[in-house]
Write a structure and sequence with these properties.
Length: 330
């Protein structure tokens, strides 16, 4: 899939040409900054700072719960194999749990673990009343059936919101949980004062983890049962989308979640748009996103990589674990 996207990215860049003019964000202050010869850089959407605030709120709720004599929420993380990136992700999630007062357990399994042994472990954790959330770190080794593993997690403690039952509830507008990265994106927008209702939003990338559920959350009606509904007009773009640059330029809010470094360039962004970069790629030993740095010359605001959506994802995992505990035992 990434090769398909890279080939597509090359076609997009060739169609645009190599260079793009520097454009400022005249709309932000209501006057023409280019006319005044002033460049206004994009506002940095600091996910790290926002996540710290949210994690503090969660820690306070956990402390209140424990003071009332209830168990602290518990998260069980299953890590199959020795993928360095997965190890870092799981370590960061467990550290965040500890700081919020959420108990966590790590179950490391060999890369050659059998499907039966993995499913047996999930069944044991499903039955453990101290476990309020199960996290199976993806991707799994190719010999394991990822769908069967996801389906095996009890949907009431599926804090990643990958189980088909939870996806269906979300689609119907009655979510049990919100998927962590999409929820992190919407929280980032809400908490920085960006309204989605009535806006034209383009999501680039149609993965089950980010693109599809994020587009669904953005388009859903905001209700008491679904407070994170976006009420937006949404286009979900992907590797077969024709004229991707043209589609992206329509967006008042543009979200890139593809996994191709620098795919979204300045020439693809509407001046004054809000841009969220969900991409996590390694390029020349550095962590980079799907959005080219030149987009900061055009956008009103932009989430960085690292320090943008990533920390928000972890905060939303903690939120789901606490929510699961509240639903299970009050």
């Amino acid at each position: 899939m990434k090769l398909e996207w890279r080939a597509f990215a090359l076609r997009v860049i060739e169609a645009q040409g190599v260079s793009h003019p520097r454009r400022a964000h005249a709309h932000r202050s209501g006057w023409n900054s280019e006319q005044h010869g002033v460049h206004v850089p994009a506002i940095r959407l600091d996910g790290k700072l926002l996540a710290q605030t949210i994690r503090g709120e969660i820690a306070a709720r956990v402390a209140e719960r424990v003071a009332d004599g209830k168990h602290a929420p518990g998260l069980a993380a299953i890590l199959v194999g020795d993928n360095p990136a997965s190890r870092v992700y799981v370590r960061n999630k467990r550290k965040a749990c500890e700081e919020a007062g959420i108990r966590s357990w790590l179950f490391p399994l060999a890369a050659n673990v059998s499907q039966r042994d993995l499913l047996n472990l999930i069944a044991e954790l499903n039955a453990n009343p101290e476990v309020h959330g199960i996290l199976v770190q993806l991707p799994l080794p190719p010999h394991l059936d990822e769908k069967a593993v996801i389906d095996a997690v009890d949907p009431t403690i599926d804090v990643d919101c990958f189980h088909p039952e939870n996806v269906g509830l979300l689609a119907a507008g009655y979510p049990r949980f919100y998927p962590c990265t999409p929820h992190g994106c919407l929280q980032m927008l809400r908490r920085t004062g960006v309204e989605t209702a009535g806006k034209e939003v383009v999501v680039v990338g149609r993965s089950n983890i980010v693109g599809k559920p994020l587009a669904m959350m953005l388009v859903l009606k905001r209700t008491e049962m679904n407070p994170m509904g976006g009420d937006a007009t949404v286009t979900l773009a992907h590797s077969q989308t024709k004229n991707l640059a043209e589609v992206c330029r329509r967006a008042e809010i543009l979200i890139a979640a593809v996994g191709v470094p620098g795919l979204i360039t300045a020439g693809m962004v509407r001046p004054g748009a809000v841009v969220l970069d969900v991409g996590m790629n390694t390029l020349d030993g550095k962590l980079v996103g799907d959005v080219h740095p030149g987009v900061a010359e055009v956008a009103d605001s932009l989430s960085p990589v690292p320090g943008g959506v990533g920390p928000m994802t972890i905060a939303m995992l903690l939120e789901n674990t606490l929510r699961a505990a509240e639903m299970l035992d009050g």
